[in-house]
Structures are given as structure tokens and as C-alpha cells.
Amino acid sequence: MNTDKTFGIIGADLRQIEAGKILKKHGYNILFYRFEEPEENLKKTILNSDYIILPLILTKDNAYLIKENISKLNFKDKLIFCNTKNNINFSEFRTKNYYTEEFIMQNALVTAEGAIKIAQEKSQKSINNSEILVTGYGRIGKILCKLLKNFGANITVFTKEEQDILWAKINQYKIINVKEIKEYTRFNLIFNTVPEIILDSSNLNLIKDLDLIVDLASNPGGVDKEFCAKSGINIVHALGIPGKIFPKTAGEIVANTILKLISEENL
Question: Between β-strands 189-192 and 212-215, what pairing exists: parallel, antiparallel or unpaired?
Fold first, then answer.
């Protein structure tokens, strides 16, 4: 497809660079702005673009930069593709949330696969026949359990939601609550997806044979990291897995989602 439209991609991390390559193959012009560049470059990128793509997740510094500059930047007549959960007010501009359910599910699959890759690299124990605790049974938790089961792991799930408890039982996983962790004292691996501290010193102190914790939850995570550091517990707080571990796939997901929105909604 040939087009005279230009995408201005703000942030230009590895995922966005890959997304830009795909959009370019579809005939779009691509401009990148990296946050370390002068502010004048940001203004030029926006001025010369028809569409703007913001990062899926903004760090505190980048979010601050965007917020501080929002009144100075001319987004008039631009369509901004962004994740509305970034909590940046673009109400006076045209926006399109590319954080769709299809996007979320694809991202969850890549995140779960990346979490397993981290475990394979950082743990000294095979996943096969390991005792694994997965805290949280949302999108990522469900996919993670399924993939781990395919590796032959023995899976225990912690979740509070009644519907998720039913689904976990249907899939024949063990179910526990936080208090019951004290009764299941042997886990080799823990994958956390809950963004609140549920694994504190009182729980972690009782778990034997623990080789690794992979915390996938947004800050502050779900694990007492200070206790882990003092106790020598191996923990990886793995944020932004798709863009860091599988940037090519993550970029494809971003680009294909945006292309689909443009096509379906004639944007």
C-alpha cells in the first residue's frame, strides 16, 4: 500500500523500532523521536507527522516529560495512538487506544513465554517436575500455567477471584490462599502476577527449596524484595518483557493492531 501519511513514533525503544519497520513496509513514512534527544526534535517529529504513537508504558521520567510538554506541543489534526492507562490527559486531542483486548491477550502470551525463558536462564532447576506457585490467575497467569503444564510442572495457583478459582480447578491445578502457603512449604519456582505485596517475609521464610522468584507485576510488585535480598532469595523483577526479550514479536503486535484499527475504522 502506498500512502503519504507519516507516523511519528515517540520513545523509539526496540519494540517501537520494529513496529516502525512494519509500518514502513505498508507504505507509511516513519519518524522516530528518542527521549534523550532535544525537545526541539520532539516538536519537529509531531509537526511533520499525521499519526503519533506513544509508548505502551511510560516510565515516570518519560511520563513527566510528556506531561510537562503537553501544553507546548501542537497535536492539532494529529491522531494519537496511545495506552489510555498511562493516565495522560489528551482529552482535547484525537486519540485512539491501541490497548485492545486482542492486543492485551497477545502481549500476555509473549509475557508468559518470556517469564519462562527467564526461569530457564536464571534457575538451576528444570521446570519439568518442579513444584511451581503462580500467584494471580488473570490473563498472564492462565497462559503461564498452561505453558508450564506443557513442560511437566506441578502447578499450584493462588487467586482470590471465585471465577478464576473455578477455572483453575477445571484445569486441575492445586488452589491455595496466602495463609495456606504455610501448609505448602516446598516450591522450587514462584511466578507472581499480582501488583501488591502478597509474598512477605512471613510467607517466604517458610518456603523450602525455593530456587527463583519471577515477579511480573508492575511496581511495587508482589514480593518483599528487601527480605529476599537479606535472605539470599533469587528474584527477578521482570517488567516490560515483550519489548525487552521479544522486541520483534512485540513490534509486530503493536504495528498489526494499529494497522487493523486504521483499516476497520477508516482512520
Answer: parallel
